UniProtKB/TrEMBL annotation:
This is Uncharacterized protein. Residues 49-121 form the Inhibitor I9 domain. One of its GO terms (cellular component) is extracellular region. Its main location: secreted.
Amino acid sequence: MISPLLFVFCTSVMYWTCQASQHVYMVILRGPSTVHLFEDPFQDSPQIYLPSQLSPSEYASYLVSTHDVLLSSTFREGTYKKLYSFSHLVNGFSALLTAQQAEILDQSEEVVLVERDNKVTKQTTYTPTYLGLPAGAWQDEGGAINAGEGIVIGLVDTGIDPTHPSFSDNTLKPYPNASRYEGVCEEATEFPKGSCNKKLVGAQHFAEAAIASGEFNATIHFASPLDGDGHGTHTASTAAGNNGVEVKVDGISFGFASGMAPRAHIAIYKALYPGFGGFTSDVVAAIEQAVKDRVDILSLSIGPNGPPPGISTCLSTFDMAMLSASKAGVLVVQAAGNAGPYSHSILSFSPWICSVAASVHDRTYPNSLVLGNNASIEGTGLASATPGDGMYTMILASDALREDGSDLLDVNDCQNSSLFNADVVKGKVMICSYGIDYLFGGSSINDVINTINKLSAVGVVMFATSDIEGRFSIPATPFSIPAIIIQTNNGSKTLLNYYNASNQAATVRIKGGANAKFSHETPKVAKFSSRGPDPENDNLQIADILKPNIMAPGSNIWAGWSSIGKDSHEFKGQQFSMISGTSMATPHIAGIVALIKVKNPTLSPAALSSALATTAFSVDEHGNPLLAQNPSSNTSIQLGPGTPFDFGAGEVNATAALDPGLVFDAGFEDYVRFLCTIPGASGVVQNLTGIECKNTSSSVTMLATDLNLPSITISNLSSSRIVPRTVTSIARDSETYTVTITEPNGAQIAIKPMEFTIAPNSTQELSISITPTKSESKPSFGYFLLAGSRGHKVTVPISIVAKST
Ligand SMILES: *[C@@H]1O[C@H](CO)[C@@H](O)[C@H](O)[C@H]1NC(C)=O
Ligand SMILES: *[C@@H]1O[C@H](CO)[C@@H](O)[C@H](O)[C@H]1NC(C)=O
Ligand SMILES: *[C@@H]1O[C@H](CO)[C@@H](O)[C@H](O)[C@H]1NC(C)=O
Ligand SMILES: *[C@@H]1O[C@H](CO)[C@@H](O)[C@H](O)[C@H]1NC(C)=O
Ligand SMILES: *[C@@H]1O[C@H](CO)[C@@H](O)[C@H](O)[C@H]1NC(C)=O
Ligand SMILES: *[C@@H]1O[C@H](CO)[C@@H](O)[C@H](O)[C@H]1NC(C)=O
Ligand SMILES: *[C@@H]1O[C@H](CO)[C@@H](O)[C@H](O)[C@H]1NC(C)=O
Ligand SMILES: *[C@@H]1O[C@H](CO)[C@@H](O)[C@H](O)[C@H]1NC(C)=O
Ligand SMILES: *[C@@H]1O[C@H](CO)[C@@H](O)[C@H](O)[C@H]1NC(C)=O
Ligand SMILES: *[C@@H]1O[C@H](CO)[C@@H](O)[C@H](O)[C@H]1NC(C)=O
Ligand SMILES: *[C@@H]1O[C@H](CO)[C@@H](O)[C@H](O)[C@H]1NC(C)=O
Ligand SMILES: *[C@@H]1O[C@H](CO)[C@@H](O)[C@H](O)[C@H]1NC(C)=O
C-alpha cells in the first residue's frame, strides 16, 4: 500500500519531470526463472510454490503476471513504470521508482533483491599506446572458409551496421541456416527489412531504461539495432566478420580483415548508446533475450563503472543473469575493464565469467620525416608519403595568413582554409599544430585535410602543443594526404628551431605511416587493461578468484566501423577503424571460443574457459614473464614483469586451446557452493538461488579457493590447507601426465598424485597441499604444469599471499 507521502505525480509523458525523484531499479523476486526450472532442472530446488503442469512459456507469463500484481497491489497506478519483466534468466523486473518505493519493495516478502541500476560503459579507450600495435590476431585463423561455422555469437553492444561487407552473406561459399537460433531481426526505417541475412542472423534493441531515465534521443541513438556509435560494428566484426574484407581508410589499403571465427553467425543485442553508455536493466534484458534465442556464446565488451554496491560483486543482478546464462550452457566472455594499470581495477568479477585483459601486440605503423638538415623525426599518422624522393618547402600556418587574415589565436590548428594565402602555401608542406582540441573533437583532422586540399598544399606536418605532449597519447589517425603528427616535445622543438633558422627555406620529406612494421616481440599487457586481484565488495576485500582470466590483443585493433559512428572522430565516416580497449580483446576470445565449440560441441562454459586458460602462454621464449605496461606519471611506457593479476592465465593460444587435453569443469551447483563461501552471503544466496547454503556442502566447509578453476588464488594463506581440483580428459586417447611445480615465495606445495594416466572422458582428482613457510607482504606467483605423454600441456597459475605464524 502506498502512503500519500510517497506519491509523485508522473505520467508516461512526464518522465523528464520525474527524473529528479525516480530512478531505474532492478527487483529480483523469490522463485526460479525458466532456465532454472526447465533447462536443467535443479534437483535441490527449494520448496517454492510452483504452479504445476505449466509449459516454459506459460510459466514465463505467470512470472510476468506476478511482477505486475506485486507492483499494482503495492503502488497506485501511474506512480511507477515497469520497464522490463525478466523471466528467463532471473525472476524479476526493472522499473522506474522513487527511492521510497524501492525501499517498500525491498521489505516485501516476495522480493529478494532491489538494486539501483548502475550505468554500464563500453570498455574502449581512446588513448592508445605509443608502442606496438596489434597483431591482427585474425591471421592466426587458418581455414577461414569453415572456421566457426554453425556457431552463433551473441553480442550485447551498440548495435551494428548491417550494410558492412564484414556481415554480408553474399560469399563464395553460401552460409548455412543458423537453424537452432530463434531470435528475430527488428525492422525500422533506418534498419529496413532484409538488413539481416544468414551471417547477421538476429538484431534487436533494448532501451526502456535509457528512455525512462531521459537519456535516449532517437535522432542520434536510433530506436533500432542500427549502430550510431561504431563500437558494436567493431566488436562484431572482430568476433566473426567475413574473411578477406579489404580494410580501406581514406583511400589507403591496410590489408584484409577477418573475424576470429569468420564463418560464425552474428546476433546483435543493442543496449548501449553513444554518449551515455547504457543501463544495466537494458543489458540484462538483452542477455535474457540472447539466451532465450539460443546464442552459443555471449560477448560483452561492457562493464560497470566500478564494483556494484552490496555484499559481493558476484551477487549483483548483472552477475546473477550471467550465472543463469552459464547454467543454460552459454559462456559469457566479458571485458576486464579499461581502468588499468592500477591494482584492484578489474571490472568483471565472477568465476562463471571469462574476463578478458588486453595485450599490445607487435605491429606498428611508424611514420617519420627527414628535414633539409638531415635530422629525422619520428611521429604517427596513417598517411602516405610525400610524392617521390624530393624535398618540399615547409610553411608554418601563421606565416601564411592572408593580408586581411585575422589575428585569431589558434590559426596554427589549420581549421579554416580561408584564413590563408593559397599562393604562399601551394605546393608546400604546411606546418600546423596538434593540441588537446583534436583529442576531444573540438578541432578535426578532416578540417586540416580540407585546408591542405583547398590551398593545394602537398601535405602537413603537425607538431604537438605543450598541452598534449607527455600527457595524452595520440590515437591512430588516418589521413588522405601526406601527413605526420610529431608526438614529442623534443621532436616539435627540433622542427620549429630548424624552420626558424632556415628563414623560409626549410624543407622536408614525409616518409608516411601506411606500412605496418612487425617487431616480433611477445605481447605486453596494455596500460589501460584492468588489473586484479578481484575485489569482492565495496571495500575491495579480495575474492579468492583469479581475475582476469585470459588476455587477447586489444590495442590498436583494426575492425569494421559504422560509417555513421560517432565514437571515434578520427575514423568518422570510415568503414574501418583502429581502436583500443579490453572491448577489442573480448570478441577475439568470443571468436576463438566459437572455434573450440566447433571441435568440442559438448563442452560446458567452464570447460571452454578452462581450455583457453590452461593453454595460454604467460612467458616469452626465454621463460621470462610477459611484460606489463605499468603505472607511470606520463605517457611514457614503464614496463615490468607481468603477473596473473595482469594477464590471468596469459595470452590466448588459439591453436592449443582447440586441443587442451584436460579441462577443469564446474557447473551451477559448484558456483552456488562458491557463493555460499562469501562471508555473510548465505541468506542472500538462499534468497537468490533458492538453495540453502548448509545443504550444498556434504561434509567439510568449502572455501572459495576450492572452486574447480584452472587457477589457485589465496589472498591470505595463514595455515596449511588442501586445495582439491578435478581434471576431466577431453582427449581422444589415454594419456599419462606428470606434474611439475614452481612454488610461489612463502609457500610449499605438494600435489598428489605426481603422475597419473587418464582415459578419455574420465576424471582425476588432484589434492594440492599448500603450506605457508614465511610471511609475505604482497602476492607471489607460481604455477603447476601437467605435461602429458601425448604432448598436452596444462598450466595452472597460483597466486598466494603467505602468512606464516
Ligand atoms: C534455410 O532456410 C530457408 C528459409 O527458412 C529455407 O527456405 C531453406 O530451405 C533452408 N536451407 C537449408 C539448407 O536448410
Ligand atoms: C537529440 O539530438 C539532436 C541531434 O543532436 C538534437 O538536435 C536534439 O536537440 C536532441 N534532442 C534532445 C531532446 O536532446
Ligand atoms: C644530407 O645527407 C645527404 C646524403 O647523405 C648529403 O648528401 C647531404 O650533404 C646532407 N645534407 C646536410 C645538410 O648535411
Ligand atoms: C631530440 O630530437 C633530435 C632530432 O630528432 C634527436 O637527435 C635527439 O636525440 C632528441 N633528443 C632526445 C632527448 O630525445
Ligand atoms: C573562416 O574564416 C573566414 C574569414 O575570416 C570567416 O569569415 C569564416 O566565418 C570562418 N569560418 C569558420 C567556420 O570559422
Ligand atoms: C620562431 O620564431 C618566432 C618569431 O621569430 C618566435 O616567436 C618563436 O618562438 C620561434 N620558435 C622557436 C621554436 O624557436
Ligand atoms: C616519464 O616518467 C618517467 C617515470 O615515470 C620518467 O622516467 C620519464 O623521464 C618521464 N618522461 C618524460 C618525457 O617526462
Ligand atoms: C601455441 O600452441 C601451439 C600448439 O600447442 C604451440 O606449438 C605453440 O608453441 C604455442 N605458442 C606459444 C607462443 O606458446
Ligand atoms: C531473505 O528473505 C527473507 C524473506 O523475505 C528476509 O526476511 C531475509 O532478510 C532475506 N535475507 C537476506 C540476507 O536478504
Ligand atoms: C536441507 O536439508 C535438509 C535435511 O537434509 C532438508 O530437510 C531441507 O529440505 C533441505 N533444504 C533445502 C532448501 O534443500
Ligand atoms: C589472515 O588470516 C588470519 C587467520 O585467519 C587472520 O588472523 C588475519 O587477520 C588475516 N589477515 C588478513 C590480512 O586478512
Ligand atoms: C567422450 O564423450 C563424448 C561426448 O559425450 C563422446 O562423443 C565421445 O565418443 C566419448 N569418447 C570416448 C572415447 O568415449
